[in-house]
Amino acid sequence: MRTPPAERTKRFFVGTRHYDPVDVGFRSVEAEGEVGYFAFDTSVKGNANTGHPFGTDLSAEEKRHLIEYLKTL
User: Fold this and answer.
1) Cα separation of 22 and 6, whole Å?
2) What is the dihedral of CA 5, 8, 10, 15, to 10 degrees?
3) What is the rounded CA–CA span in Å between residue 45 and residue 72?
4) With b meaning 16 or more CB within 10 Å and e meaning fewer, what string describes 12-37?
5) Distance CA 62, CA 55 (A)
6) 13 strand-pairing partners
7) Dist. CA 73–CA 63, nearest whole Å
8) For 28, how many CA atoms within 13 A lie in the half-sphere containing its CB?
9) What pLDDT score does 65 carry?
10) What does the H/E/C string look like for the chain?
């Protein structure tokens, strides 16, 4: 929701359990070569991160308000 599908990160690392309460999710880390982290590559079949474009045209303030609202559900 935060960025249009074409602008989303193509490769990122997962494996951390550090929760980010502001952006609501687990933090992505730069962990090239570190044990315990997995490089998630969206160019691999089945790993798409395209999702939907809903909300990508909202202003930064509108996106933040929407995230804050979703936290209440």
Assistant:
1) 24
2) -120
3) 34
4) bbeeeeeeeeeeeeeebeebeeeeeb
5) 9
6) 29, 39
7) 16
8) 9
9) 92
10) CCCCHHHCCCEEEECCCCEECCCCEECCECCCCCCCCEEEECCCCCCCCCCCCCCCCCCHHHHHHHHHHHHCC
Per-residue pLDDT of the chain (73 residues; tens, 9 = 90+): 578 888 888 888 887 777 888 877 777 777 666 667 788 899 999 888 887 788 888 898 998 898 889 889 8
CA-CA distance, 23 to 44, in Å (whole number)? Answer: 26
Give the residue carrying structure tokens 């074409």. 6
Distance CA 42, CA 9 (A): 8
| Residue 57 structure tokens | 């045209």
